[in-house]
Write a structure and sequence with these properties.
With 320 residues, the protein is an all-alpha fold. The chain has 16 helices and no strands.
Length: 320
Amino acid sequence: LKTSRIPGPMEPVERSANPDKELKERLEALGPDGKKGSPTEIKELLDFLQNNQMRKPLLVVKYGKRLIDNYPGTLGDDVWEMREKVLIAALDADEKKTAEQMLQELDRQFGRSTKPSLRLERLRATYHEACGNWQSAENIYKNVIMREDTVNPHAIRRIACCYKGQGNMEGAVQWLNKYLRIFPADVMGWIELAEMYVSLDRVDYAKFCYEEAILIEPQNYLYPLLYADSLYALGSQKKKHGGVKNPYDVARQYYIQALELAPGNLRALLGLAMCLRALKVTSHTASLFEWVDSEITRVYSKSGAEARATLKIVRAALRQ
């Protein structure tokens, strides 16, 4: 398949200052049914969506198919790249018939070679995943793509997703661990692995994953927050605490770190209050508990009457 030309460092992608407003104007110019637009205007619309990273799969399917069906000559060799874009958008929009049609056309053009096109096989596996054909997708990833590239990151990650889609969390954990041993800097991979461990009630393993995420992106408040949640969960368990002597106290420290990165975060405030409650409020922590209580009150007070009613319940629970 033809690879898109990537702008160089001196060719920054032009992004709109107000993409939603500009998109509305472009669609109005194309008319209510979109038939007023010329091939050039349609291509500019699709480029606009891509450059501004706007997820509008129905628009890509509608106007991409119009170019392919009515103006294929204006695309030249880029018609195959357009088919690929429409295929992916159709899967996103759950229009599997359109996706199947695009895949068949790509297969007729690129699937006859004795050496498989990894890009085409990746699209084929993605189509099988969207249709719930997990075994077929897994077979392509393992026996076609990884035969050519044994450490293909996309294939390894998607095999984990295939196991997860079938409800086999143990298999998903095994493959995601394999992926992260090769690509340890993928922070979202660590977060996904942590979620899998939590679903398997292995909170101590999830804690390790959150530690890795904090090391990779220490400026992101979400990771110390999730780490603190896992420590609090360990503290509430009667079994071993994953090597942490006092999970509630360590969780308290990380809830405070999350609040330093995201002041006023309600989840961190509630977590900190729960930790102080679990540790038993003493003369040393009483002022911190009162500050947390006032912050929770301030956050809830910004909302409507329903939130204020919830506040009464929350404060009563924290002071039991």
